[in-house]
Amino acid sequence: MNSNHNHYPEGESLRRALATRYRNASIGRVLFFSALVIAILSLVALLYNVIDGAFGYVAFEYKNDPTEFTSKPLDDLTKEELLAILKANLSSGAYTKLDNEKPMEKRSRSVLYTLLLERLIQIDTKQTWSLTDSIFRSGEIKAEVAQKYPEAKLEFRSWLTPVFLTTPMSSKAEFAGVRTAIFGSLWMVGIAILFALPIGTGAAIYLQEYANKNFLNRVIQTNINNLAGVPSIVYGMLGLAIFVRTLEPLTSGSIFGVTDANGRTILSAGLTMGILVLPLIIINAQEAIKAVPDSLRQAAFGVGATRWQAVWHHVLPNALPGILTGSILAVSRAIGETAPLIVVGASTFISLDPDGPFSKFTALPIQIYQWTTRAQPEFHSIAASAIIVLLVLLLTLNATAVLLRNRVQRRY
Amino acid sequence: METNEIPQYSIETKDLSIFYGTFKAVSDVNLLIEKQKITAIIGPSGCGKSTLLRAFNRMNDFVPSSYVTGKVLMGGQNMYGANIDPVEVRRKIGMVFQKPNPFPKSIYENIAWGARINGFKGNMDELVEQSLRGAALWEEVKDVLQKSAYELSGGQQQRLCIARTIAIQPDIILMDEPASALDPISTLRIEELMQELKKNYTIIIVTHNMQQAARVSDYTAMMMLEKDGSRSGTVIEFSETKKIFTNPKDKRTEDYVTGRFG
Fold first, then answer.
1. Tens digits of residue pLDDT in B17-63
2. Quick check: is A252 in a domain?
3. Closest to A412 measured CA to CA, from B94, B120, B125, B146
């Protein structure tokens, strides 16, 4: 007989041993659950912090009394009346300049109204309150305003408005928007992906399907893995040196006949971001290609396919969902990066939409960074709104990529 | 009956050894594979049966650091000769794998793809039908040609893989344990199919299943690790299947086929 025959617990001792095992399991479960709770709490705190800043009471005064310009209540003014007021009161130089940017007659009423507030009446924001304060301390806030700023109006404002999305930059927070920053970010991410996705996928195919496992290729592989962790500011320096300086004729567009730009263009920023996300895309594409079962390649080779035919007809289509997952991560990374853009030279004040890869540009993270560094509290509020815009934009792009991925996911 | 016929050889190996780096996996194999016969390769696990089979159509080329010495002759031409393209070899010597591995495409495309990449110019619909008939699958799938191949049963998938192979009109079909992942009924159908196929093709099959080798094959090659402890496999006996199973020359073969071994 086996000498180990009676060495397993039985009866009472088995029950005790089992109880201990279940207890350990439940301790583990509690730990994992707390990890989840902590993660969720941090996310909630982040969202709360952002939303708290983007809505709330604001106390402001008109620097110039509206009655100086018109006897009607401001909200009742028609477009023609607004136009007349602006023409009469703006200096002719300023009016001509605005007219040259876009003919005044063609601007909408709300734009003219904003111009009136911005240029003539001029708003002076005294103080802003967070959403939490606005909800729970509204009485105190009203009393405080009445006492401290007897002239001021108090209104509950959402800093995130359709106008905020559609107006370009302004030096005054009340009239600033993120339109140019959204366009800048989209252009940049677009260029980055167009640049990095084909190159990254190509590199991954080479490494996975063609490269021998020799010393050189192992070194390359290790370096790609490490490049994914290089701080983004380093990529910024690289972009500055290569794209902004060395390749200036290309990135400024001067070889294509564009004359008024230097190398600090959307193209430079997009290519820099492209290089930054390249390791991410390569690694993910490699994983996706690795996950394609070898039996599929063998099947293709077995009927006389070349390596390229096997890759193009079978490996790539099957790896595409995984490759797209990598590009989702890449988009998320590219749209949120700030440091390389600062180095590459994003402008913070751009009032015209970018009209091509050779435009000067700004981007959402740059705008947020710039606004949060301002002293005036109203800039912090629009920074919070811009963060919401950035998050929504990120989610939209990701959702698009996920939908795309699900479309190409094999139905077989 | 056929004693006076001069046997025609489809494939011939001369001192074929297969290496993975410095490891000699298969050593000094000399085989004469007869045309339109079924040759089985049997032997215990890890003795290099599949490696030998894959050497015939150069599938081992995909294993980094693998190489062969010796010759694989087909019609007098060395398949490992300098002017031979392995892609062309694989078109002439088709392969059916252990696990059914249809492409994740429709049944029709599974057959059409191989033909198309090899530059087939004829009537594709006809070729698909011919091939499916040849693999005894046509009646079952003729109405669902556009359905995914993955919706077929394992046995049907394996017959689809056979159809895919005969669509590129090879001379030889290699089968690497083609029924080991299938149930007995599917296995039987594959075995029946092999008898049909040997009218037109030379078949070399690797199998673990000695009854299967005895049932289907005309010739049997018995593989075994070499006695010298080098872990390389070699063919210790090669002759008519009947002889291998009833009157083996080698004691090790006898032990193996009678179940006294492994």
1. 999 989 999 999 999 999 999 999 999 888 899 999 999 999 988 88
2. yes
3. B146
Contact A305, B87 (CB under 8 A): yes
* Domain span holding position A375: 179-408
H or E stretch at B95? strand B93-96
Mutation for A interface: B60, B85, B113, B161, most A CBs within 10 A: B113
Chain B residue numbers touching A309 (CB-CB < 8 A): 117
In CATH, the architecture of B9-257 is: 3-Layer(aba) Sandwich (3.40)
Q: Which two tokens stand for residue A285?
A: 């594409």
Could you tell me the pLDDT band of residue A411, with boundaries at 50, 70 and 90?
low
Q: Is the pTM of this model over 0.90?
A: no
B172-176/B202-206 β-pairing: parallel
Under an 8 A CB cutoff, do A303 and B148 touch? no
CB pairs under 8 A between A and B: 70
Residues present in chain A in total:
412
- Our separate counts of H helices and E strands in chain A read 18, 3
How many Cα neighbours within 13 Å face the side chain of A371? 30
Q: What angle do CA A358, A351, A377 make, to 5 degrees?
A: 130
Q: Is residue A18 part of a domain?
A: no
Last residue of a domain, one of A158, A188, A205: A158
* Residue from B54, B56, B79, B95 to probe the interface with A (highest A Cβ count within 10 Å): B95
Cβ within 8 Å of residue B208, ≥6 positions away:
B42, B45, B177, B180
Taking an 8 Å cut-off on Cβ atoms, the answer to whether B117 and A302 are in contact is no
Note whether A409 contacts B: Cβ–Cβ < 8 A. Answer: no
Residue B36 and residue B218 in contact, taking contact as beta carbons nearer than 8 Å: no
Confirm or reject contact between A296 and chain B (CB < 8 A).
yes
Whether A128 maps to a domain, the answer reads yes
Cβ–Cβ under 8 Å, residues B16 and B200: no
Distance (Å) from the alpha carbon of A256 to chain B's nearest alpha carbon = 42
H or E stretch including B240? strand B233-240
Domain layout of chain B by residue ranges: 9-257
Q: Which amino acid is at B176?
A: D
Helices assigned H by DSSP within A149-212:
162-166, 179-205
Helix (H) or strand (E) holding A380: helix A377-408
ipTM of this complex = 0.89
Question: What is the total count of domains within chain A?
Answer: 2
* Residues B151-201 pLDDT 10s: 999 999 999 999 999 999 999 999 999 988 888 898 999 999 999 999 999
A308 and A387 share a domain? yes
* CB contact set of A1 (below 8 Å; sequence gap of 6+): none
B210 near B257, Cβ under 8 Å? yes
Q: Given CB atoms, is B149 within the 8 Å cutoff of chain A?
A: yes
Mean confidence (pLDDT) of chain A: 87
Helix (H) or strand (E) holding A403: helix A377-408
Q: Is B64 on the interface with A (CB under 8 A)?
A: yes
Interchain contact A313–B (C-beta under 8 A): yes
**A7 at the B interface (CB within 8 A)?**
no
Q: Say which CATH number the domain at A213 has.
A: 1.10.3720.10
A412 contacts B148? CB cut-off 8 A: yes
| A4 located within any domain | no
